[in-house]
Structures are given as structure tokens and as C-alpha cells.
Amino acid sequence: MISITEAISSIKINHKPSFATTTRRIEKANGYILAKNIRSPINMPPFKQSAMDGYALNLHDNLTYKVVDEVKAGDQHQPILNQGEAVRIFTGAAVPDSANAVIMQEKVIATGKQIKIEHQISEQLNIRPIGEQVKQSATALKKSTKLTPAAIGYLTSLGITEVLVFKKPSIAIITTGNELAEPGHKLNHGQIYESNSKMLQSALYSLKFYDVTLHKVEDDYTKTVTLLNTAINTNDLVIITGGISVGDYDFVGKALKELHVKEHFYKVKQKPGKPLFFGKKNNTSVFALPGNPAAALTCFYIYVYIALQKMMNRTEIELPKTRAKSLSNFIKRGDRPQFLKGIYSEGKVEILDGQNSSMLQTFALANALVFLPEHTQEVKINDSVETILLPV
Ligand SMILES: Nc1nc2c(c(=O)[nH]1)N[C@H]1C(S)=C(S)[C@@H](COP(=O)(O)OP(=O)(O)OC[C@H]3O[C@@H](n4cnc5c(N)ncnc54)[C@H](O)[C@@H]3O)O[C@H]1N2
Ligand code: MOO
Description:
Blueprint: H1 4-13, E1 21-25, E2 38-39, E3 49-50, E4 54-57, E5 64-71, E6 85-89, E7 101-104, E8 108-111, E9 114-117, E10 127-128, E11 139-141, H2 149-157, E12 162-166, E13 171-176, E14 180-181, E15 192-193, H3 196-206, E16 212-217, H4 221-234, E17 237-241, H5 252-258, E18 262-266, E19 277-281, E20 284-289, H6 293-311, E21 321-326, E22 330-331, E23 338-345, E24 348-351, E25 368-372, E26 378-379, E27 384-389
Parallel strand pairs: 5-6, 13-16, 13-17, 14-15, 17-20, 21-24
Antiparallel strand pairs: 1-12, 2-11, 3-10, 4-6, 4-7, 5-9, 8-9, 18-19, 19-20, 21-27, 22-26, 23-24, 23-25, 25-27
InterPro entries: MoaB/Mog-like_dom_sf (IPR036425), MoaB/Mog_dom (IPR001453), MoCF_biosynth_CS (IPR008284), MoeA-like (IPR038987), MoeA_C_domain_IV (IPR005111), MoeA_C_domain_IV_sf (IPR036688), MoeA_linker/N (IPR005110), MoeA_linker/N_sf (IPR036135)
Catalytic activity: adenylyl-molybdopterin + molybdate = Mo-molybdopterin + AMP + H(+)
Cofactor: Mg(2+)
């Protein structure tokens, strides 16, 4: 049995960023990392652009201007202004070359075709110069930038429709167990609904990993070997739940051995999630998480999460941690370090009841895991506790 620290460092050491790339449509690239610098194909803005509804002026010494034309957003004509002339203009419209300032309409007195401004204004006022945001051929975003909704908006504003990004791992989730029934069917005696697959798939989706397939296998050694073999050969990451403990019908460990998956660790001194396995075959990572749902999800956040971040070449590879004042008393039994479901808010954390690894009810309310190290036996109200913030 190894420690949590050893398990985490094994995962860090054994995951390298994947440099495989893929081209994605921009609207499907949120959360991906750019695999090369992107040059702007255009100047942005592409023309001298008005930032206000008002008048574009060819400035002169007088405060009175003659309005000679109008340019709306999208208009293509370019009226030529002599000094002292103005055109009515609107936000986003192209400012004529011969205009050198825009005054907002609230600041003028208009009488027929004439306007009067209150005082002299400076050149270029309210004009967004060509290429102010980014110049044509300049680097719009650098390689390794994580694409966010704002980045997608920005690249789209430059007319970019697809981007070269680092591939995300393809992930198989395999659930094991004869007792597992599909929701939608009546439960027979001894059955429970299978919930780990949808839970882990949702956790992956919220981290923006979408290449996820779900598989299930009954407690049968040959079928387990066959399914694991295919999953390992066709995915970058395989997450198995259940069947990893020591029972007569726990076939996952034996199947992984038969398939020559190199074991990096099996069993971590922690609660929940003691029978956690991590191994690799070729470039595929294999995590066998305990079947108990809360144990499986805890192991996902503490361990699988790190593997995913490393694969994606991200810099923040562990979930954020903070110290928080406990709002609860808690007594830890045994000497395993423990992760406890909690609700964190503004520097304080409530440790929830119902910490059993089979229970998801409290996990459904939690937004944090409180970590109690090996030698902490008790938490009292107002004690400072390490708190891991969940991406929920
Ligand atoms: N003799 C020992 N027994 C057990 C030990 C031990 O050290 N010695 N460890 C216990 C701990 S801790 C855990 S955690 C579990 C882990 O067992 P497995 O990973 O082999 O998981 P299963 O036995 O298959 O399932 C455990 C539990 O979870 C339910 N389950 C499984 N899969 C799903 C799913 N997809 N959706 C919902 N629920 C699921 C399953 O029905 C069981 O109730 O072992 C202890 N035993
Ligand atoms: O590891 Mo088990 O998850 O303690 O119940």
C-alpha cells in the first residue's frame, strides 16, 4: 500500500503531454490547447471604425460643421470631407479617410444640416484605428493558449473557422458487476442501478473531455479480459470501476495482469478509495477505481484529474486547495488519511454527514473535499482544514 503523495507523484511521472494534433472547427474547440501560433488573417478592426453614434468630422478651428452625408454600419461608400465638414455616423461604421475625429451625438447641437460642438476635440477621438486589436499577419494567439469562449469569439472575429489543437484523449469507461441494472428497468432483488458510468462521463464532460465511450461487463473473467483488451488498444485512457478488490468475483486485477498492463500502484492508504489501481500499457493509462460510487468519484478528482491535465499539457494539474475553518466536528476512525465531502463557502467548510463510500447523496451537495491527513484524528469547529475545491 502506498501513500497518497507517492500515488500522485507516480501519476505525474507516468504521464507526458500528448503532442498529437487535430484540426477542429472553431465552435467545437472550446477547452482545447492551440498547437501552433495563430496569425491574424486580417487587421482588426479592418477599417477605421467609429466607436460612437454621432458625427465624423474633418476638424477645423471653428466649432460649427456642415453635415454632408451619412455612413451607417456596413455602408461601403467613403464620402470625402473638406475641413469643416461632417458626416452623420453610427457605432461600428467605417469612418471616412478624410475624417479625423468622431463626436458623440449627445455633445452636439444639430440644426438642419449644421452641427455645433461645445469645444475643440482632439484628433482620433472615438476612432478605432485599423489593426488596433491585432494587425494582419501578427500573432493573434500563441501556441499553448487554452481556448475559452472569449478566445473562440476573438478568433471568429478574425474570420478563422478552424484551428490546429492538441488532441484530447479518447477515454473508455468500463463498469463491472452482475448486480448492476440499467436505469429504466425494474430492479430485481440484489440489483442496484448502475450509476458510475454516467457520473464519471459527466465529470469528464464538465472538464471538456467529450471523446468518451461507455462499456459494461458482467463478473466474468474471459469477458472482462476481452473488453479490457479492446478498450486498452483503442483508447488513451481506460477508467474501470468495480471488481478491483479481493473478492472471488473481482476479475479486473487478474485481467489487467493477463493483458500485461504494467502496474504502477495498487492500493493507496486513503479513505475512501483504498483499492485503487493505476497502470499503463504502451501509451494507454489504466485506472481501476473502486466500485463504491463516492470512492470512484473521489479517486477521479484526486488522481484521474491529474492524469488528464498532464496529458493536455496544462500547468494547473491538481485541483485548487485552500485552508478553511471547519463548521463541523468530525472524528476520523482508523489511520488512513481521509477525503470528506463538504460544502465550502467564503473561507468556511461544512463537513457533511453520510461519508460512507457507497453514498452519493452528500456528494451531490458537496463542492469540496476536506482532507484529513493520517495523524489528524479529530476536527473541531473552527479548526483550519485543508480543502480541495471541486470543479462543480
Ligand atoms: N475483504 C475485503 N473486502 C473489501 C475491501 C478489502 O480491503 N477487503 N475493500 C473494500 C473497499 S474499501 C472498497 S472501496 C470496495 C471496492 O471493491 P471493488 O472495487 O471490487 O468494487 P465492487 O465490489 O465491484 O463494488 C463495490 C460496491 O460498489 C457498487 N458498484 C460497483 N459498480 C457500480 C456502478 N457502476 N454503479 C453503482 N454502484 C456500483 C457495488 O454494487 C458494490 O456495492 O471493496 C471493499 N471490500
Ligand atoms: O475505499 Mo473504500 O472506498 O474505503 O469504501
